[in-house]
Amino acid sequence: MTDAYRTVAGRADARFEVNGSEFIGYVSPAETVEEAEAFVAEIEERHPDATHNVPAYRVPAGSASSSVPGGGSVMLREYQSDDGEPSGSSGKPALNVLVQQDVRNVAAVVTRYYGGTNLGVGGLARAYSRAVKEALDAAGVVEEIPHERFTATVEYDDSGSVRGLLESAGVEFEAAYEADVSFEVRVPVEDGADLRDRIRSATSGRADIE
Q1: Per-residue pLDDT tens over the stretch 93-129
Q2: Where in the sequence is the domain holding 165, given as residue range(s)?
Q3: Do 135 and 55 fall within a single domain?
Q4: Do 85 and 131 share a structural domain?
Q5: Is 120 in the same domain as 174?
Q6: Helices 91-100 and 120-139, interaxial angle, to 10°?
Q7: Number of domains in the chain
Q8: How far, CA to CA in Å, does 10 sit from each of 30, 87, 111, 113, 141?
Q9: In what order do the strands lie in the sheet with 76-80?
Q10: 153 beta partners
Q11: Structure letter (DSSP) for residue 2
């Protein structure tokens, strides 16, 4: 079995005040750099008037697949930014919480509204660390196995059998009915090759799988 890893069970947030400054920690699952960046942008849009929106994330550097498993051996992209806070006072402490708690495939953003009192580098580091820790606690940490994604495009005549196959396999998928039918599938890495073979067999090789 491909290595399991620790990640957040879902989205969550936590908020508190320190000497008049409000801190809001947000966390979200993210399986790719693109998903992590999209979450960061979403929080920035939610709080355009914040003094700082400090991001940190740990996600796979590339997509998981049967040849590049998403478990312990995968290369992780670790990113953080101080977003205008004093250097090393915010982004690094936020990222350190993710590292110390050994969670990955996760993005965090800490929003700060300045309250008029400077907290100093030590005070900031404690506050940003606390915001991520409390958001992680609110989200809950779970063990997950690496997943990969692929798209199977079939003609309408084959769509019923492919949909039934995916439903019986118990995998996550979304279907788009246009000129053809496209199934966006999320499957455990260790089951991906077998599922693709079963789709090809069910459609006599007519399925276009990417």
Answers
A1: 999 999 999 999 999 999 999 999 999 999 999 999 9
A2: 147-209
A3: yes
A4: yes
A5: no
A6: 40
A7: 2
A8: 10, 30, 19, 25, 9
A9: 12-18, 21-29, 106-113, 52-60, 76-80
A10: 182, 208
A11: P
